[in-house]
Amino acid sequence: MGETLSLKADWLLPVTGPPVKNGELLISDGKITACRSLEKIKSSSGTIVIPGLINLHSHLDYSEAPFLKNTPLFDWIESLVATTRKWSREDFERSAAKGAREAILSGTTFLVDSSYTGQSALAMQRVGLRGIVGLELFGVDETSASPVFAHWQKRMEDLEQELQKLQELSGATQNSGALPIELTISPHSLYTVSPELFRLAVTWAKERRKFVLTHLAESPQELAWTDTGHSRLDSYLRTVLPRPAEARTAAGRDQIIERISWRGRGRSPVQSLEAEGCFSDKLIAAHCVHLGPDDLTLLARAGVSIAHCPRSNRNLENGRAPLEHFLEKGLKTGLGTDSLASTESLSMLDEAKTLVQLLTESGVFTRTEALKLALRLITIDAARAVGAAERIGSLSPGKLADLVVLESVPEEEEDDSTESPVEDEARILDALFKGAYRVRDVYVEGRPVVKNGTLENPAQKVAG
Ligand SMILES: [Zn+2]
Q1: What is the pLDDT of residues 348-400, one digit of tens each?
Q2: CA of residue 334 to ligand 1 center, whole Å
Q3: What's the pLDDT band for 464 if we cut at 50, 70, 90?
Q4: Which of 56, 73, 253, 314 could make an S-S bridge to 219, C-beta 3.0–4.6 Å?
């Protein structure tokens, strides 16, 4: 059918195999057909090619919300809610568009997003990003699960139609075996979704064989709340509870909080969700920082995937997640940035850089181990977490041609490493994560979506 595209680079980093020097990647019909070394090349181009990066947790909707650092989680959420409750649909649309642009320009090709309004999915479609978008679900009042869920279903139907319209407008013909944007459900967390409503969400997803996206065990306050019931979380809920008849008075709000059955049951957040039958191998849980003794076993037994968010965990004072134990238990794990309201950028290379620093400082891994692990967590391991390791996550023949071409940034003169050729994976990764390369081109299924650091925006071109 289509013609073959050849991409040459100083190095190809296939991830599932050793780096390929003087590499050539062949692409046909949106798929990689060869990843090989050329005996002779004219001269060094200063480029490397890596697989398209995968972000396992973001909220593009909040890309224009103020970034707060060194702020405890529940102070941060109260501030976020106060800002975004005033936003119009257009505000969310503009904010999500900004996030989608930033994500793809930094080399992300597949993104798992929890979206308050659904605008993330539309913004992703417009720039050519793919992934999984969970329309967020909130409703902690045990008595209103059915009407709240019915309302969510109506919103989902509307979103599905809007996304479909956009796809038709873009006229993009998809390759066989293409990965479309999957719309699904995102019950926000157990402290904002009642057990009854959470079960409705899980059942809805199970019937459709879709993923469920949630936040889990993010903060020490969440652990204290499900365990003893005494936590900063109650005052947070009093502030943010919507205002149906009963919640208009302080006493009414307290009643709603007191009857939330996750609260004060002597369980950890992980045990709470597991006990209510909310776990499955299609659950992607963000954070998982504050765990009880048997929680890792419960997560592993159910096949839950984890989105590890090192920068957001640090910035909102939630501590460091036990990544080494996730890996020991064989948990499917990748990295997530979280939103621009709690992290510095949507770049997975930046996220990986911070992870390497944290892992090296903590002494859990050597620097070389940390570098190699970080690359896997933003490519092949994340692909496994979204059940797509056969399709994306490495430069392997047969996989979709999602890839990033990076070019070296001219180095400072005093840097004496300029003369020494970069000869192994760890040294290339060291340079990559320290910012010695910048994203030049991004391909999604063999189609250029970023060229020379500029968005191609194929959807708009066709629509215009
Ligand atoms: Zn989040």
Answers
A1: 999 999 999 999 998 989 999 999 999 999 999 999 999 999 999 999 999 99
A2: 14
A3: very low
A4: 73
Domains 5-51+395-463 and 53-385 are alike in CATH topology: no
User: How many angstroms is it from 337 CA to the middle of ligand 1?
Assistant: 8
State residue 48's pLDDT score: 95
Q: Are strands 437-444 and 447-451 parallel, antiparallel or unpaired?
A: antiparallel
| In the chain, where the domains are located | 5-51+395-463, 53-385
- pLDDT tens-digit readout, 298-314: 999 999 999 999 999 99
Q: What are the residue ranges of helices labelled H in 106-181?
A: 119-127, 145-170
CA gap 256, 241 in Å, rounded: 9
Neighbours of ion ligand 1 (CB under 5 A): 338
- Which tens digit of pLDDT belongs to each residue from 147-205? 999 999 999 999 999 999 998 887 655 544 567 899 999 999 999 999 999 999 999 99
CA of 120 to the centre of ligand 1 (A): 13
Per-chain mean pLDDT for the chain: 90
Cα-to-centroid distance, 338 and ligand 1 (Å)? 5
- CA of 34 from ligand 1 middle (Å) equals 37
Q: What CA–CA distances, in Å, run from 68 to 89, 129, 329, 342, 351?
A: 23, 27, 33, 6, 17
CA–centroid distance, 393 to ligand 1, in Å, is: 23
Distance between Cα 454 and ligand 1 center (Å): 28
Specify the length of the chain in residues.
464
**Spacing, Cα 137 to ligand 1 middle (Å):** 13
Q: How far is the CA of 155 from the centre of ligand 1 (A)?
A: 20
CATH number listed for the domain at residues 5-51+395-463: 2.30.40.10
Residue 213 Cα to ligand 1 middle (Å) = 10
Q: Is the pLDDT at 134 greater than 80, yes or no?
A: yes
Return the CATH number of the domain spanning residue range 53-385. 3.20.20.140
pLDDT digits (tens, 9 = 90+) for 234-255: 888 888 776 655 566 788 888 8
H or E, element range at 306: strand 305-308
CA 448 – CA 44 distance, rounded (Å): 23
Tokens standing for residue 298: 């419960």
